[in-house]
Amino acid sequence: MDKTETTVKAYNACAADFTAKFMDLALYKDSLNHFINLVPAGAKILDAGCGPGNIARLLLEKQKGFRVSGFDLSPEMVKLAINNVPGASFQIGDIRNLSSWEPGYDAIIAAFSIVHLSNDETLQFIRNVSCLLKAEGLFYLSCIQGDHAGYATTSFSRKEIYFNRFSRNFILTALTGHNFNIVNTFSQAYPEPDGTTSTELFFYARKMPL
Q1: Are residues 10 and 159 in contact, defined by beta-carbon separation less than 8 angstroms?
Q2: Which CATH architecture has domain 3-207?
Q3: What are the tens digits of pLDDT across the range 149-185?
Q4: Would you say 176 and 125 are in contact if contact means Cβ atoms under 8 Å apart?
Q5: CB-based contact 159:172 (threshold 8 Å)
Q6: Which strand (E) or helix (H) includes residue 12?
Q7: Residue 195 scores a pLDDT above 90
Q8: 0.85 exceeded by pTM
Q9: Pairing outcome for strands 105-111 and 161-164
Q10: If we measure between CA atoms, which residue out of 169, 88, 102, 172 comes closest to residue 133?
Q11: Quick one: DSSP state of residue 139?
C-alpha cells in the first residue's frame, strides 16, 4: 500500500474525530482571516484538500459573495463537507492531478494539504496552482516545518498517516520559481499529543502577471 492510499484510508476512518477537533478552526482563524481580507468580494475560490468543509464554511460566513468549490481524496471527508457546507460544491479529487479544473480562480487555498505529498509532488502542485490562478490571484499555503517525511499517528487518528515536512526556504523557492510574489509569511507553534510542539508555516502569495 503506498503512502497516499494509506493516508486516505486513515482519514476515512478518522473523519469524525478530525471534524470534532478542527471544524471550528480555533488554531487557524487568524491566519485564514488575514488571507480572506486580501480576497476581493465575489471571488472564485478553490479549496484544495477541503477536509470536512471547515474553511469553506468560514469563507461563506464572510458574506462576500465568494463562489467556493473544494475537493478531497477522502470520500468520507467529502461527504462531511457536502453536509456541513451546502452553499459550496465539493467532489472527490487528488491534488496531485488538477487537470480536471479549469483555470480562472481568484484564490486557491491549500491548508496543510501538501503535508501528504513528496517534495516532487509538492513542486508539481505549486506549478499547477499557478496555472489555475488568474493573474494577481492569491494563494494560501500552510505546512509543517522540518526536513523529513514518515508515518505517524496523531491526536485525531490512531491509524498512521504519511507526513512530509518542509523548510521555509524550500517553499519560498518553489513559489518564487513558479511566478508567485510573496505577500506575507509567518509561523506558529502546534502542540503535539506527547507534549512537544511542531512549527507550522504559512505563506500568502500572489501570482504575478506574465
Answers
A1: yes
A2: 3-Layer(aba) Sandwich (3.40)
A3: 999 999 999 999 999 999 999 999 999 999 999 999 9
A4: no
A5: no
A6: helix 3-22
A7: no
A8: yes
A9: unpaired
A10: 102
A11: E
Distance CA 125, CA 112 (A): 13
Nearest to 48 by CA among 105, 4, 3: 105
C-alpha cell at 91: 467532489
d(CA 158, CA 104): 39
Tell me the one-letter amino acid at 74. Answer: S
Q: One-letter amino acid identity for 165? A: R
**In the prediction, which pLDDT does 186 show?**
94
C-alpha cell at 97: 492531478
Domain borders along the chain are 3-207
**7 close to 157: Cβ distance less than 8 angstroms:** no
Identify the burial level of 26 via C-beta atoms within 10 angstroms of its C-beta, where 0-12 means exposed, 13-18 middle and 19 or more buried.
exposed
